[in-house]
Design goal:
The chain is an alpha+beta fold. It has helices spanning 108-111, 177-195, 242-245, 249-262, 264-275, 281-299, 303-307, 311-325, 327-334, 342-358, 369-391, 396-404, 407-415, and strands at 4-12, 15-26, 32-37, 50-58, 62-76, 79-89, 97-105, 118-121, 126-129, 135-138, 142-155, 158-176, 201-207, 216-219. 38% of the residues lie in helices and 31% in strands. It has a six-stranded antiparallel beta barrel. Strands 8-9 form a two-stranded antiparallel sheet.
Length: 416
C-alpha cells in the first residue's frame, strides 16, 4: 500500500463514547503512526500495547472501519502520538486469530509467469480471458491455492484488464496474528530465494471466520518494502520458476517449510543479507559465512564439537565439506582465480575471515580487500543456495542447469 495520511475518528474499545479526531499515516516502509487531538488514553505508554478502533475515509471505498493493533504512545502534549504494529482495514476486531489469509508478493507474478488467463486473438486483434486452473495442495498446517485473478475497469473510451497472482492459505485452525506472520514470512523467503531478488508483501487480506467472505486488509511495517526489485523479472534472471516445479510444487514447498523450521537461525542470518545487506562488505561476508557455518553445524554429527570451535575453523570445515558436495556447480565459480581448486579457495577464504575477525595482517596480503570481500560473499552465498536447492529436492544436474543460465553465476565465473 502506498504512503498515505487519512483523517478519521478514533476511540478505545473499552470507552467507545470517547471519540477523538486524528490522523493515521503510513510511510514508505509501512510504519504506522496515529496522532489524535486530546488524550485517547492517559498513561497508555505505561500500560503496554493497546487496541484502538476507528473510522477513516478512503478515496475509493468511502468510510471504512479500522482496528489498530499493539499501539504504543510515543509523544504527549496537546496531542497524543502512537506507533501501531498493524492496521486492519475493514473491521473492528478484539481478537487477532485468522483461519484464512490471502497474500501477494512483488515477485510472484514473474515467478508464476505461465499462470495466466489472457489469450490473444490474432484474427480479431482482441484479447480474451479464461481463468487458469489454480495449483492446490496441502502443507503441514494448511491448504494452499496458487491462482490468478483479474480486475476490469472502464471509462467511456478506455477498457482495462489487470491480472495478479496470489496465494490463499486455509489454516487447520485459527492462527494468532504473530503465527500467521511468521508462516507468511517463510513464504516470502521462498519467493525471495526462488526469484533471486528480495520480495515485498504487496497485498495481505485475512478473514476472521470461514465463509465470512469479508476480506480485511492488513498493513504495517515490512521486512522489505521495495516492490520494484522483484517485479518484471525474466525467467533467466530467477533461480527457478513455477515452470520448473509445477509438477512437484507441494513437495518443494513442504520441504521448504520443514527446512525453514529446522534452520531458523540460518535463514534469519542469510535472508537478512538479502533484505537489508550491510553497507560494509566485510560484515556482509561475515554474515554469509556464519549462515553457511550454522547450516553445516546443524547437519553434522560433530555439531557439538564444531559449535565450540572458533568461528573461522567452523567456516573452514563448512566451506570444504559443502564445496566438495556441490563440486559440479561450485568449482567453476572458483576455477579461474584458484587453479588449485577447493583447497586453495578455502584457505584464502579462511585467511580473509581470520583477518576480518582479528584485523591481523600477518596472514592476509595487502590489496583491494573491498572487491575481494564482495566476491567471496557472493560466492559463499551461491554455495548456500546450492545446498538449499539440494535440501528441497533438486538433483545435481538440475542445480547445475539452473546456475548455468543464471546471470549472477555467469558473472561470478567470468569475474573470478
Amino acid at each position: 500500500m502506498d504512503p498515505f495520511q487519512r483523517l478519521g475518528s478514533w476511540w478505545l474499545p473499552t470507552t467507545p463514547e470517547k471519540v477523538l479526531p486524528g490522523v493515521l499515516s503510513q510511510d514508505t516502509s509501512g510504519e504506522l503512526r496515529l496522532e489524535v487531538l486530546g488524550d485517547l488514553f492517559p498513561g497508555l505508554g505505561q500500560n503496554g500495547p493497546a487496541i484502538v478502533h476507528g473510522e477513516m475515509v478512503e478515496d475509493n471505498r468511502g468510510l471504512i472501519l479500522v482496528t489498530l493493533m499493539d499501539c504504543f504512545q510515543t509523544h504527549q502534549s496537546s496531542t497524543q502520538k502512537f506507533f501501531a504494529h498493524r492496521a486492519f482495514l475493514g473491521a473492528h476486531l478484539d481478537q487477532f486469530q485468522f483461519p484464512i489469509a490471502r497474500v501477494e508478493f512483488s515477485g510472484l507474478n514473474s515467478w508464476a509467469h505461465e499462470l495466466t488467463g489472457f489469450k490473444d486473438n490474432q484474427v480479431e486483434h482482441g484479447l480474451s480471458y479464461e481463468s487458469p486452473k489454480p495449483f492446490q495442495g496441502s502443507l503441514r498446517n494448511c491448504k494452499y491455492t496458487l491462482g490468478a485473478a483479474y480486475e476490469y475497469s472502464a471509462t467511456s473510451r478506455k477498457r482495462s484488464f489487470s491480472e495478479s497472482v496470489g496465494f490463499s492459505f486455509e489454516f487447520d485452525g485459527k492462527l494468532l496474528e504473530s503465527e500467521m506472520q511468521a508462516f507468511l514470512h517463510t513464504v516470502q523467503n521462498f519467493l525471495t530465494f526462488a526469484t533471486d531478488k528480495p520480495n515485498a508483501f504487496t497485498k495481505l487480506e485475512v478473514e476472521t471466520e470461514r465463509f465470512d467472505f469479508r476480506r480485511i486488509r492488513v498493513i504495517g511495517p515490512k521486512v522489505f518494502s521495495d516492490p520494484t526489485l522483484a517485479a518484471r523479472l525474466r525467467p533467466g534472471e530467477m533461480l527457478f520458476t513455477l515452470t520448473e516445479v509445477k509438477d512437484r510444487l507441494q513437495e518443494i514447498m513442504q520441504k521448504w517449510v520443514n527446512l525453514a523450521n529446522r534452520c531458523k537461525d540460518v535463514f534469519a542470518i542469510y535472508f537478512s543479507t538479502r533484505y537489508a545487506p550491510s553497507a560494509y562488505t566485510d560484515f556482509q561476508l561475515q554474515f554469509v559465512a556464519q549462515a553457511l557455518s550454522l547450516y553445516h553445524v546443524g547437519r553434522s554429527k560433530l555439531a557439538k564439537d564444531l559449535s565450540e570451535s572458533h568461528p573461522v575453523e567452523t567456516a573452514a570445515a563448512a566451506i570444504r565439506k559443502l564445496g566438495a558436495e556441490q563440486a559440479a556447480t561450485f568449482e567453476p565459480l572458483i576455477a579461474k582465480r584458484f587453479p588449485t581448486g577447493l583447497f586453495g579457495f578455502s584457505t584464502h577464504a579462511v585467511d580473509t575471515l581470520y583477518y576480518i575477525y582479528t584485523r591481523d595482517d600477518s596472514r592476509y596480503p595487502k590489496g583491494d580487500r573491498g572487491a575481494l570481500y564482495f566476491w567471496l560473499a557472493e560466492v559463499l552465498s551461491e554455495l548456500l543456495k546450492m545446498c538449499i536447492l539440494t535440501e528441497i529436492g533438486f538433483s545435481e544436474n538440475e542445480i547445475r542447469e539452473l546456475f548455468l543460465r543464471n546471470p549472477q553465476y555467469q558473472y561470478l565465473c567470468i569475474g573470478n
